[in-house]
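REQUEST ID: PR-0412
SUBMITTED BY: lab tech R.K.
PRIORITY: routine
TASK: structure prediction, single protein chain
INPUT:
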Amino acid sequence: MRLHRVRRSMVAAAGVTCMAAALLTGCGSDGGSTEGGVTKLTFAASTLGDPGRGPLLTKWLEEFNKSQNKIQVSPAAVPYPTFGQTVLTQMGSGKGPDLIRFDMPEFESAADAGLIAPLDDLIDVSKYDLIKQPDQFMVHDGQRHGIIFEASNYAMFYNADLIKKPPTTYEEFVKTAKSLTKGDTYGLAFRQTEAEEAGVWQDIFNYVYGFGGAWSDGQKLTINSPANLKGLQAFKDLYDAKVIPRGTDAATFRRMFAEGKVGMELNNGGYVTATRGQNADLNFNVAPIPFPVRKQGAILAPPS
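STATUS: complete
OUTPUT:
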């Protein structure tokens, strides 16, 4: 497959508005269009459809468009549950967005399939203060395919009206979830539907790492390690305890949290904006995840 080349002018203009964190195009894109000397591109991100973050991200694009007259970027919203499958399918057929904010699984798939244009000769990363450890995942076989758009660690969000003192141990976490679950109010919520499989794994990471597990030891997979199984069992125990609104998707239970119908969630840092966007008056707070080991998952999103 022939890699689509990005215009160098786009990279230069992008750097003006700190879009150094926003990456540039893949071979599966439509390649943009030029009209009256203006290059028109599309930027796809699942967060564009988020009621809290979407408007802010759209405003950011509008500010970039106003900052120069060589490039105009239009937002392309694709719902989170189908985002990866939809965009990868489009790219595989030679179409799709020009710029894409991927989650890591889809980013790796696109890079492995040769669907992303190398960025080495388009962006001088030495100009930017990139965090080495996560940035290493943007390079495959010596070629840079992305730059980190955002990195968000997970924490425990809780309704401060329902929970005066946040739990500090897993046992307290379970007890709190059970005590709050009554009627149409639930103590906890997390993703557990097949339609949101990618998000389910993101949520499970917190339990695996929070109980001392890891998916590999750096050399080989450790899927069935005792610590991993303990974390997975903790996740299953909470599901079986019926302390979550089972069968609901993330959009639904996040709205429930904003309405005071869910006591706790383990979510990433971007959730602060999303929650305030749905209910600016909600009295919520954030605390460390109260699991035995102080480790948690993170959302690493590279645009390409």
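NOTES: The two ends are 17 Å apart (CA to CA).
REVIEWED BY: pending
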